[in-house]
């Protein structure tokens, strides 16, 4: 792994996104700007009773916007890291946080359409990439944000994504696998059917995949079978 440094980050805000998902805002008081590339992650060093005390979380916010970053984290009740964050961390807490890491980033020149494929909080690095394009004026082609989860109440950033969907260069394509409410009139099922329909026989594009492990591996294999080059299919898997 690349070299990194540790910092004491102040928790300046915590927001509920869903019943099991929270957004944590970490401030780095010794910096004017926390340096990272859209798509990267940080490690949190947590005082938990486990051999591995660090946990990796993708940054959901836009680079170049100051010394506060946003993490969106889902509770895993069977784990040890997220129960600690949800139960013990509050505004004013200090979390030992690493510098940014990872190579899950956009190319220098975004010369093809981009398909973001995510489930759950896997939307975090993809949101960061999109915000980077918009807020930092990065030239780009069309962007497709394909997001999957189980129910309406599990959706991340729905209002923001629907607002971006009004743009000509952004397409928000959520699909819910277990929603039975008549309130939901959008797509039902899994993300694979959505991107396969959009790309047809193999539209030239970049693919960035993040979320549930099984989804990532299935999407990667399907895209490679269609004929995409490995350099066009990027994904983020955490241990």
Report the strand count. Answer: 12
| Name of the CATH architecture of the largest domain | 3-Layer(aba) Sandwich
Task: Give the total of domains.
Answer: 2
Radius of gyration: 18 Å
Strand order of the largest sheet: 4-3-6-1-2-5
Low-confidence stretches: none
Task: Classify the secondary structure makeup into a structural class.
Answer: alpha/beta
Structure notes:
This protein has a 6-stranded antiparallel beta sheet with strand order 4-3-6-1-2-5, with helices on one face. Strands 10-9-8-7-11-12 form a 6-stranded parallel beta sheet, sandwiched between helices. It starts with 5 loop residues before the first strand and ends with a strand. The longest helix has 14 residues, at 213-226. It has 2 domains: 6-98, Translation factors (Elongation Factor Tu (Ef-tu), domain 3, Beta Barrel), CATH 2.40.30; 113-236, Nucleotide-binding domain of ferredoxin-NADP reductase (FNR) module (Rossmann fold, 3-Layer(aba) Sandwich), CATH 3.40.50.80. A hairpin with an 8-residue loop joins strand 3 (41-45) and strand 4 (54-58). By secondary structure, it is of the alpha/beta class. It contains 5 helices and 12 strands. The protein is globular, with a radius of gyration of 18 Å.
At a glance:
This protein has five helices and twelve strands.
How do the strands and helices of this protein lay out in sequence?
Layout: E1 6-16, E2 21-27, E3 41-45, E4 54-58, E5 68-74, H1 81-88, E6 94-98, E7 113-119, H2 123-135, E8 143-149, H3 158-164, E9 170-176, E10 187-188, H4 191-199, E11 205-210, H5 213-226, E12 233-236
């Amino acid at each position: 792994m690349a070299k990194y440094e540790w910092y004491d980050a102040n928790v300046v805000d915590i927001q509920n996104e869903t019943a099991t998902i929270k957004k944590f805002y970490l401030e780095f008081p010794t910096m004017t700007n926390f340096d990272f590339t859209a798509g990267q992650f940080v490690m949190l060093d947590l005082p938990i009773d486990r051999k591995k005390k660090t946990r990796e979380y993708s940054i959901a916010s836009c680079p170049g916007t100051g010394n506060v970053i946003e993490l969106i984290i889902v509770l895993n009740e069977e784990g040890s890291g997220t129960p600690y964050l949800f139960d013990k961390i509050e505004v004013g807490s200090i979390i030992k946080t690493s510098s940014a890491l990872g190579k899950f980033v956009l190319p220098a020149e975004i010369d093809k359409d981009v398909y973001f494929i995510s489930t759950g909080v896997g939307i975090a690095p993809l949101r960061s990439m999109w915000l980077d394009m918009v807020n930092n004026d990065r030239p780009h082609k069309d962007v497709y944000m394909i997001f999957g989860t189980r129910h309406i109440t599990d959706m991340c950033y729905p209002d923001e994504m629907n607002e971006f969907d009004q743009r000509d260069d952004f397409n928000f394509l959520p699909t819910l696998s277990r929603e039975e409410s008549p309130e939901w009139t959008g797509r039902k099922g899994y993300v694979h059917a959505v991107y396969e329909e959009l790309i047809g026989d193999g539209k030239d594009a970049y693919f960035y995949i993040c979320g549930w492990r099984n989804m990532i591996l299935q999407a990667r294999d399907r895209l490679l079978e269609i004929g995409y080059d490995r350099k066009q299919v990027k994904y983020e898997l955490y241990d």
